[in-house]
Amino acid sequence: MEHDTSWAAAAYDAAVYGFRFDLARYLIGAGLVALLVALLRRTSWASRKIQKRHASRADLRRELIAALRTIMVYTVLSVPMVWAFRNGWLRQYHGGVSALGFALYLGGIVVAHDAWFYWTHRAMHLPLLYRSFHRFHHLTITPTAWTAYSFAIPEAATMFLFMPVYLAIVPTPGPAVFAFLAIMILRNAMGHAGLELHPRGWASHPLLKWISTTTHHDMHHGTSYNHNYGFYFTWWDKLMGTEHPDYVATFDRVTGRAVEPESRAVSAT
Questions:
Q1: What's the predicted TM-score (pTM) here?
Q2: Domain count, the chain
């Protein structure tokens, strides 16, 4: 009975910590990107808005409610993950790590997550899975930073499962995991920002073109949901022939035009 009590206490602590951590991660990551977009839309970068359509209040309300649901899914699943750590099924690396070692651990988990995201994302577009897994996310046609956690329950569970699967294979230092989780939410929010945040020429640069842009994922929502499945990188889309043929032209158009900032346009009228 004492063992059951200690396990219940550990499960409760894991759930409370998991909820607070993921809520804070979402609010800080999406909030910072949303604030950046709001500030940039008062400058000449306002011309980098990718779609003419604006997200509605109904979109925002749906996405915030879905984000809370996603956080609850992550919270529930964090409990068996803690149990797996306590019983040796999952392990963190606790030895010393050099700067190079840290970079390798971080790079490895980012590359692995990109592959996980591409293939699970593409699988969720199959007719057998789309309706129950991914249709909800595509109710958002014009994304914003707050779209980052707008998942149905099965998709949220799929996103969560990457961590225990990866850590079961590669015990990773805690700081590298924390840095990865910070990068993940920031890149997620940037991909849904609705305003292109990358410099002109990025999509066709010999090296930078392999890193995804806001336009890349925005086109998946607003132009063709059968293209641009990648997350951090574009190489899976390029290799598998799923990158939208108009991606580079669209990016160049979005980053090349110039209009009056919204604040000036409003004051002029």
A1: 0.90
A2: 1
Residue 265 belongs to some domain of the structure: no
Structural contact between residues 212 and 230, judged by C-beta atoms closer than 8 angstroms: yes
Q: What is the DSSP letter of 204?
A: G
Residue 267: inside a domain: no
Q: Output the six-digit token pair for 99.
A: 């700067």
Instruction: Look at the block and give the residue holding tokens 């079961």.
Output: 168
Mean pLDDT of 66-85: 94
Length of the chain, please?
A: 269
pLDDT confidence of residue 181: 97
pLDDT at site 267: 38
| Stretch 42-53: mean pLDDT | 95
DSSP string, 36-70: HHHHHTTSGGGGGBS-SS---HHHHHHHHHHHHHH
Q: What is the mean pLDDT of residues 156-162?
A: 98
Asked, for residue 249, whether it belongs to a domain, the answer is yes
User: HEC states along 136-170?
Assistant: CHHHCCCCCHHHHHCCCHHHHHHHHHHHHHHHHHC
Instruction: Give the DSSP letter string of 225-262.
Output: TTS---SSBSHHHHHHT-S-TTHHHHHHHHHH-----H
- Domain assignment present for residue 269? The answer is no
Quick check: 45 pLDDT over 60?
Answer: yes
**Do 163 and 81 contact (CB within 8 A), yes or no?**
yes
- CA–CA distance, 212 with 229 (Å, rounded to integer): 10
Cβ atoms 1, 53 nearer than 8 A = no
Q: Which candidate, 24, 126, 130, 12, places its Cα nearest to that of 67?
A: 24
In which band, very low, low, confident or very high, does the pLDDT at 87 lie, cut at 50, 70 and 90? confident
**The pLDDT value given to residue 4:** 53
Q: Which domain holds residue 204?
A: 2-260
**CA dist., res. 2 & res. 30, Å (int):** 42
